Amino acid sequence: MKIVEDRHREAQGVQVLENLQKLLRERRHSDPAGSYVAGLYHKGLNKILEKVGEEAIETVLAAKDVQDSAHTDVLIHETADLWFHTMVMLTHLNLDVKAVLRELERRFGCSGLIEKANR
Asked: How far lies 11's CA from each of 18, 19, 47, 98, in Å?
């Protein structure tokens, strides 16, 4: 039963990413005045990359703080922001989130040292 539950949760996680990507694609054609994502798309790749970098730094700082306290909720929030803005970037570049998932799946069970040496 545990395997079935794990697969169901995994499928739900993939569905969340697919639904988010669908929404992000739709927002590309929205009015920038009425949508944060449309505004990012309108400002272009450099602004999107700036947001990814900003969220990466905030995530790193939140992780550092977790070492000193029990405030994991901030780290979860910042990681969600990082993933979100990374998906905005991928969608802006017409890349599919499933390609990232396939790459992670490909790496599963492979030594990180070997994988990196093969790049």
From this structure: 10, 12, 32, 12
Instruction: Evaluate if residue 8 carries a pLDDT over 70.
Output: no
Q: How far, in Å, CA of 1 to CA of 85, rounded?
A: 35
CA distance 100 to 96: 7
Whether 10 shows a pLDDT value over 70: the answer reads: no
Q: Specify the pLDDT at position 110.
A: 76
Q: Which two tokens stand for residue 73?
A: 């909720």
Spatial distance between the Cα atoms of 51 and 31, rounded to a whole number of angstroms? 20
What's the CA gap between 3 and 118, in Å, rounded?
32
Cβ(59)–Cβ(79) under 8 Å?
Answer: yes
Residue with tokens 């999107």: 48
To the nearest 10 degrees (0 to 180), the angle between helices 72-92 and 97-107 is 120
What is the pLDDT averaged over residues 72-95? 96
Residue type, 69: S
